[in-house]
Amino acid sequence: MKLFHIFLVALVLFSACKKKVEKTADIEAQSTPDFVVAFGSCNMSQEQNPFWDDILAENPDVWIWGGDIVYADTDDVERLKSIYAMQDTVAGYAKLRNEVPVIGTWDDHDFGLNDGGADFAIKSESQQVFLDFMGVPKDSERRTQEGVYTSHEYEVPAGKIKVIVLDTRYFRSELIKDEDSKKRYKPTKDSTATVLGEAQWQWLENELNGSDADFNLIMSSIQVLSGEHGFETWGNFPLEVKKLENIIVRSGAKGVIILSGDRHISEFSRADVVGLSYPLVDFTSSGLTHSYASFSGEPNQYRVGEVISEKSYGVITFDFEKKEADMKMKGDNGVLLQELKQSY
């Protein structure tokens, strides 16, 4: 009887443990996303970035730089190289880079000129320094094209993600200063003014038209939908905004989401575009090492939720079966600052 009692207790314990393991496994299966994207912008290599360990803890499938990877603001190529090199020595970033694919684009401060565009004297030299930093092979076609735009595809058993990385600097037309208000810039009426340039526009259209991805992320260093604040934005080129929307609609691409940075604030913008079967979201995540702490408000007719004016990074988790993207702004230690779930 004693041996039988011991056997019975052991069996009960084993069954209890088995149920606990199965329950834990079920919870993990339910909570594990199909694909995770982390991204951010506005990073001073000489300043403390508190997020690298938090970003790695998100277990992302890719990290996307949204621009202003470093603050160089120089036309001295050697100085530009040295500032990028400083970023590579940051231990937390080096660990992330060794464990997670890193892609992305530049904005004005890593391009080399604040609010700079097509007229920047060393843009071609700056492009090569940027590609060096991103680890692009010397024989890559990106070394001979003008501009740093590119695309990446990621396929997992559940589905496919496409990331389209834009260059909003190399070809961008001159900004029009606003002399009539307190805003910095105003929208141009010039129908020939451009954000992307002819070659990149054609490339983008082809990328969207040919995409069979379940979700298509478009990384624009500057905001697309928020266009009323008077700083840098696609809104300074309203015909270009309309052109982008039309291309997205005509392409039939699934799950298009815009990612942006630049502003030192984070916010969600969402617009209903005629002909598009889902809302177009512009997820702005900025900045990583410094933010617009004195932010006191600005208009944005497309804003969803509140502006986050503290330092943060962005995370998007994708559920292919539900056709859902869960977008989160995160702070230090992975604290959730704001969230937007969108079905597609």
From TrEMBL:
Residue ranges of domain PhoD-like phosphatase metallophosphatase in the record: 84-271
PROSITE patterns: PROKAR_LIPOPROTEIN
InterPro entries: Metallo-depent_PP-like, PhoD-like_MPP, PhoD-like_sf
Transmembrane stretches, start-end: none
Domain of life: Bacteria
PANTHER family hit by this protein: CALCINEURIN-LIKE METALLO-PHOSPHOESTERASE SUPERFAMILY PROTEIN (PTHR33987:SF1)
Official protein name in the record: Alkaline phosphatase family protein
Origin species: [Muricauda] lutisoli
